[in-house]
Specification:
This protein starts with a helix and ends in a 10-residue tail after the last helix. The protein is rod-shaped and about 75 Å long. A hairpin with a 6-residue loop joins β2 (75-76) and β3. Strands 1-3-2 form a three-stranded antiparallel sheet, with helices on one face. Helices cover 56% and strands 10% of the residues. It has two domains: 3-43; 48-100, 2-Layer Sandwich (Alpha-Beta Plaits), CATH 3.30.70.1530. The chain is mainly alpha-helical. InterPro entries: FliF_N_dom, YscJ/FliF.
Length: 110
C-alpha cells in the first residue's frame, strides 16, 4: 500500500468511530499535548543561583538597582531577604553588586 491509500484508510477508520468517540479522542489528544508542553516549559525553566542571602531592605534595593542597571536578570526570594541570578551569572552579578557597594554587615561574628 502506498501512502495515499494508507491515509484514506486512516480517514475511514476515524469516520467509523462516530462523533462522540471522535470528540473524546480529540479531547484526550489536546489534553495530552497541553500536559507535555506544560511539563517541558516547567523543566526548561532556567536554573537560578543564590547571589546574597540575609539582606536588609536597603541592601536588597541597592543590589537590585545595580543588577537592573547591568541588565542582569534577578529574582528576589519569597522571604524578601535573598537575591538569585541565572546560572552562570553569579560572578558578573556579584561584581555589579560590589560596584554599588557591599551589603551592610549587621550580623555579629561569634
Amino acid at each position: 500500500m502506498n501512502l495515499l491509500n494508507q491515509l484514506v484508510q486512516i480517514f475511514k477508520n476515524f469516520s467509523s468511530l462516530g462523533r462522540n468517540r471522535l470528540l473524546a479522542l480529540t479531547g484526550v489528544g489536546v489534553v495530552s499535548v497541553v500536559l507535555i508542553l506544560g511539563a517541558a516549559f516547567l523543566v526548561n525553566k532556567p536554573a537560578q543561583e543564590t547571589l546574597y542571602v540575609g539582606l536588609d531592605t536597603p541592601d536588597l534595593n541597592q543590589i537590585s538597582m545595580a543588577l537592573a542597571e547591568a541588565n542582569i536578570g534577578f529574582q528576589v526570594g519569597s522571604d524578601g531577604t535573598s537575591i538569585t541570578v541565572p546560572a552562570g551569572m553569579t560572578g558578573k552579578g556579584a561584581a555589579s553588586a560590589r560596584r554599588a557597594g557591599p551589603p551592610e554587615q549587621r550580623q555579629r561574628r561569634l
